[in-house]
Specification:
335 residues, alpha+beta, eight-stranded mixed beta sheet, binds 2,5-anhydro-1,6-di-O-phosphono-D-mannitol, binds magnesium ion, Fructose-1,6-bisphosphatase class 1
């Protein structure tokens, strides 16, 4: 009823960011504006996705391959461009770097005054797009260091501790935005009738251990012995459930909420695994640590990894602290 609805303190995302920083300093206002822009991009992408089967040219492939050698979907391009156009108007960002672009995209009118860089994966879990299953967008914000006049963006090749903010948008039955600015992890649900992301959970903490293990077991014979040993351990013990959707954001969200571990280990063909550091694994590592969990390459804390190039890949073991530690102990044993 109406009274019940009003009972609820409807905290919007931008208000939440300001509250978190407890200030109206220039940086607090910048972060609030940046998060607002990300929310706008999420709303635009969510809107297109809800009608994708009805709109011409929303689904399927473009016929091109990206820097990573992966086939590009129309939705990848749409979402990539949404972030660019939304940030063009912000004045705060001079460069954007994404999975879909070999080099960063510069917005000359915002350079060099744009003090921040947006790193993002516009559509994570692309293979789910055409079958109407969950997908996501992942984002990370870093402060631009230096003028980058030669446009080489070398200042981005730093560890994950440099992130000012990180998060994702999950396009599922509802659209959910999860973010952290280094003060806990908070989730917001899009109320489509208001067009606003409203706070749904504050200070999320991942359980110390969980039943879920999330990994593509089709790669079993591609892994190191240590990973196979861990999976055999899981198979022999009660209380584990396999959950793998093919979209990292969705699998990660389950683990954040319920506990467990997500793994994308190196394979024989790709010893560094599949996932990219700057706009996939580092943002999620930032979130999980803020939620009391852990993220690792298997042998190193993920946030400590310094990328050697923009599209640098890392293996990923992420989730509940006890589960990540167990995987690491199997890897340690075999070294
Ligand atoms: P994408 O960003 O191109 O969609 O690739 C990343 C995705 C992750 O969402 C998911 O966890 C993984 O790739 C699935 O890969 P695989 O099919 O090898 O298991
Ligand atoms: Mg991805």
């Amino acid at each position: 009823d109406a009274a019940h609805v009003l009972d609820r303190d409807c905290t919007t995302l931008s208000r939440h960011v300001l509250q978190q920083l407890q200030s109206f300093s220039a940086e607090a206002q910048d972060l609030s504006a940046l998060m607002n822009r990300i929310a706008l991009a999420g709303k635009l992408i969510a809107r297109r996705l809800t009608r994708a089967g009805l709109v011409e040219d929303a689904l399927g492939f473009t016929g091109r391959t990206n820097v990573q050698g992966e086939s590009v979907k129309k939705m990848d391009i749409y979402a990539n461009d949404v972030f660019i156009s939304v940030f063009k108007q912000s004045g705060l960002v001079c460069r954007l770097a994404s999975e879909e672009m070999e080099d960063p995209y510069y917005i000359p009118e915002n350079c060099p005054i744009g003090r921040y860089t947006l790193l993002y994966d516009p559509i994570d879990g692309s293979s789910n797009v055409d079958i109407n299953l969950n997908i996501g967008s992942i984002f990370s914000i870093r402060r631009q260091q230096g003028d980058d006049l030669d446009q080489k963006a070398t200042d981005l090749l730093q560890d994950g501790h440099q992130q000012l903010a990180a998060g994702y948008i999950l396009y599922g039955p509802s659209t959910v935005l999860v973010y952290s600015i280094g003060r806990g992890v908070h989730s917001f649900t899009l109320d489509p009738s208001l067009g606003e992301f409203i706070l749904s959970r504050e200070n999320i903490q991942v359980p110390a251990h969980g039943a879920n293990y999330s990994v593509n077991e089709g790669n079993f014979w591609q892994w190191d012995d240590s990973i196979r040993d861990y999976i055999r351990y899981v198979h022999r013990h009660d209380g584990y459930s396999a959950r793998y959707s093919g979209a990292l954001v969705g699998d990660f969200h389950r683990i954040l909420m319920q506990g467990g571990v997500f793994l994308y280990p190196g394979t024989r063909k790709r010893p560094e695994g599949k996932l990219r550091l700057l706009y996939e694994t580092a943002p999620l590592a930032f979130l999980i640590e803020q939620a009391g969990g852990q993220a690792s390459t298997g042998t190193q804390r993920l946030l400590d990894v310094v990328p050697s190039e923009l599209h640098h890949r890392t293996p990923l073991v992420i989730g509940s602290p006890e589960d990540v530690a167990l995987v690491e102990s199997f890897i340690q044993e075999r070294r």
